[in-house]
């Protein structure tokens, strides 16, 4: 370091410039934070705080220059005198340079942090529920109609005031801020100064005959981007009726924008009453009250027949309620109007009309990911990719989702899909954490309970497993969800999959104990439990009774074939397999063929079993059904079977250093 630069640094210290820099940032930051709170309480416009920030920024170099030339002494303020060589030498200790740089760096970092955090807070959007409704412009060419613009604004404000979500600014305040004739100000600037996050403005035009058209724009403040446009026309003699119609749609668009979930689906302004019904439908949907959701979605559509998203909601709720035929009929009603669908509406229609867990549905989601990727689409991609074996693709999409996003938390499928994917990748601790977090949001979801039990089995944590199993045994059945007995039977299958046959038998016995208390009884589950508990002869007796009552049930015949194979009655087991092959069961998505594969595996017919499994996949059975291995345990290690169960995609390549840096910056 040159002597001249050392002398300059010594002067900085002697003149207390470094001390001024170190103190300016924290003191200024504290003043800004306090002023932000005080000015907000005084309801002053946002530019007041912004003005103080700029004063703070511009004051920093002024403070440094002032501290160079002026010093405060006991006798008062005076100009700093030049130093003698002896005085300056006292500020040149050998280790001072390091301390000086530390002070400079600390002061600079504090200034940058103060400015960043303060400006970051100021850049937050203005409250979207506060709305400015400005008088409409008269473009009719008739000066006698000038008063319509103000009257329309008053009626729109009354319409918005009747909602629970919106808070329009009184028109008098807006007109006062706009200024008088010849001194008009920009409307968006006025809205921003008043702290309003949305602006409603527009014009009205004369049309043929006695008709007038109102065109309304809803704009974002600040920035002025158009959020929605609403228009309506009618006789000039009854223009208030036209404005009422416009007001309902303006209110619907503004209210939907405040609702994270509803706003995600809506891409056009809708009647406010229709929006309210749709919102209630979403509340029922998230609580799995399917009948209520269907009722409210239909109400939304009846109040506004352009609201096709509500019809899609009916179909989705009906599907979740097991009313497949009804859902299909609802979607068929939409088919003639499919060209009216746009954006997310069209995507949901295409997704619902594709067969569940099919490659076509996965293609629909992949296409939407390219067009308009968002967290909900990523969740659907995970849901559809895992059952078909594209596990790495699912994990890649689901790990990009923000689980703290309120919209994501309305989709219970997210936790279930991610838990399934983690299990297939042997990431059992991650699976357990996901299942536990999901249960915090959906404590009644028994599928997430199954995921947690499955993860504990993978980890070999039998202490926590037994505690959770006891909790399941004490649970009551919740209609519409997997029963606690079903949870225990599924867990028994996973215990066998993970190489714990004795634990599998124990869990199956727990399931039978629960099923014994169930009212009304579910004999099919009891038969299944008896097979899982290695009590096939008892299971066979029960199945014979059930088949005598329901002779054409393929599920019962499949279980009976498995029971016969387990007891060594090969000829009788083969007869059941032949019965399944001869029956017309093509509409059951390959499940009967899957039973035949299980019977073949238990009879030691490995090649036949794998061939039948391939056939069942072609018939609609999903790849995920090969987990847990269950009755296919004897096929593990058999190369064609292992190849069939192999995950279909590969892990993504390790990101480059540049990609890691970009991700870190994001």
Tally of strands = 8
Q: List unreliable stretches of 5+ residues.
A: 117-123
Profile the largest sheet.
Answer: 6 strands, mixed
- Mean pLDDT reading: 84
CATH architecture classification name of the domain at 130-258: 3-Layer(aba) Sandwich
Approximate strand percentage = 5-15%
The number of helical runs is 32
* Overall SS class: alpha/beta
Report the C-alpha radius of gyration, rounded: 35 Å
CATH class of the domain at 130-258: Alpha Beta
Helicity, as a percent range: 55-70%
Q: What is the H level of CATH, i.e. the homologous superfamily of the domain at 130-258?
A: TolB, N-terminal domain
State the distance separating the first and last CA atoms. 38 Å
* CATH-defined topology of the domain at 130-258: Rossmann fold
**Could you say which overall geometry the principal axes of the C-alpha atoms support?**
flat
């Amino acid at each position: 370091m040159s002597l001249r630069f050392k002398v300059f640094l010594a002067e900085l210290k002697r003149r207390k410039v470094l001390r001024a820099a170190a103190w300016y940032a924290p003191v200024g930051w504290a003043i800004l934070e306090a002023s932000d709170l005080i000015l907000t309480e005084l309801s002053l416009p946002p530019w007041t705080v912004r003005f103080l920030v700029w004063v703070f920024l511009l004051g920093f170099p002024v403070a440094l220059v002032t501290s160079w030339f002026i010093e405060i002494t006991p006798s008062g303020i005076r100009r700093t005198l030049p130093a003698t060589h002896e005085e300056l030498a006292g500020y040149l200790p050998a280790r001072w340079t390091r301390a000086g740089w530390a002070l400079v760096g600390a002061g600079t970092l504090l200034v940058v942090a103060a400015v960043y955090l303060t400006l970051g807070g100021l850049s937050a959007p203005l409250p979207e529920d506060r709305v400015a409704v400005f008088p409409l412009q008269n473009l009719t060419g008739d000066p006698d109609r000038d008063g319509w613009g103000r009257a329309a604004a008053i009626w729109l404000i009354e319409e918005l005031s009747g909602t629970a979500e919106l808070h329009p600014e009184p028109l008098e305040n807006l007109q006062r801020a706009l200024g008088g004739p010849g001194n008009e100000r920009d409307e968006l600037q006025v809205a921003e100064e008043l702290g309003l996050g949305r602006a409603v403005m527009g014009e009205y035009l004369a049309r043929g005959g006695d008709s007038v058209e109102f065109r309304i724009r809803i704009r974002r403040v600040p920035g002025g981007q158009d959020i929605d446009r609403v228009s309506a026309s009618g006789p000039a003699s009854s223009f208030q009726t036209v404005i009422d119609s416009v007001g309902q749609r303006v209110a619907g668009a503004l209210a939907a924008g405040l609702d994270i979930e509803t706003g995600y689906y809506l891409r056009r302004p809708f009647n406010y009453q229709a929006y309210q019904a749709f919102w209630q439908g979403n509340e029922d949907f998230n609580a799995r009250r399917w009948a209520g959701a269907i009722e409210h979605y239909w109400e939304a559509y009846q109040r506004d027949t352009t609201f096709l998203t509500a019809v899609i909601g009916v179909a989705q709720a009906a599907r979740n309620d097991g009313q497949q035929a009804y859902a299909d009929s609802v979607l068929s009603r939409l088919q003639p109007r499919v060209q009216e669908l746009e954006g997310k509406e069209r995507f949901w229609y295409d997704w619902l009309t594709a067969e569940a867990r099919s490659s076509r549905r996965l293609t629909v989601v992949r296409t939407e990911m390219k067009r308009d990727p968002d967290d909900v689409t990523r969740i659907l991609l995970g849901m559809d990719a895992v059952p078909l074996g594209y596990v790495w693709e699912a994990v890649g999409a689901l790990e990009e989702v923000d689980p703290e996003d309120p919209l994501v938390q309305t989709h219970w499928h997210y936790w279930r899909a991610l838990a399934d994917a983690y299990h297939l990748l042997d990431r059992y601790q991650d699976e357990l954490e996901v299942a536990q977090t999901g249960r915090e949001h959906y404590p009644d979801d028994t599928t997430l309970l199954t995921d947690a039990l499955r993860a504990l089995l993978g980890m070999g944590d039998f202490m926590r497993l037994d505690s959770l199993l006891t909790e399941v045994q004490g649970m009551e059945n919740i209609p519409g969800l997997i029963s606690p007995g079903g949870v225990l039977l599924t867990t028994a299958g996973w215990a066998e999959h993970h190489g714990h046959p004795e634990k599998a038998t124990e869990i199956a016995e727990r399931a039978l104990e629960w099923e014994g208390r169930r009212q009304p009884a579910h004999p099919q589950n009891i038969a299944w439990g008896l097979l899982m508990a290695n009590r096939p002869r008892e299971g066979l007796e029960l199945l014979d009774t059930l088949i005598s009552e329901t002779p054409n049930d393929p599920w019962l015949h499949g279980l009976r074939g498995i029971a016969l194979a387990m007891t060594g009655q090969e000829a009788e087991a083969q007869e059941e397999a032949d019965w399944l092959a001869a029956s017309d069961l093509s509409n059951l998505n390959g499940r009967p063929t899957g039973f035949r594969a299980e019977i073949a595996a238990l009879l030691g017919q490995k090649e036949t079993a794998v061939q039948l499994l391939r056939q069942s996949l072609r018939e609609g059975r999903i790849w995920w059904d090969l987990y847990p291995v269950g009755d296919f345990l004897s096929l593990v290690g058999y190369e064609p079977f292992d190849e069939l169960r192999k995950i279909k995609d590969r892990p993504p390549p390790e990101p480059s250093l540049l990609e890691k840096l970009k991700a870190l910056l994001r």
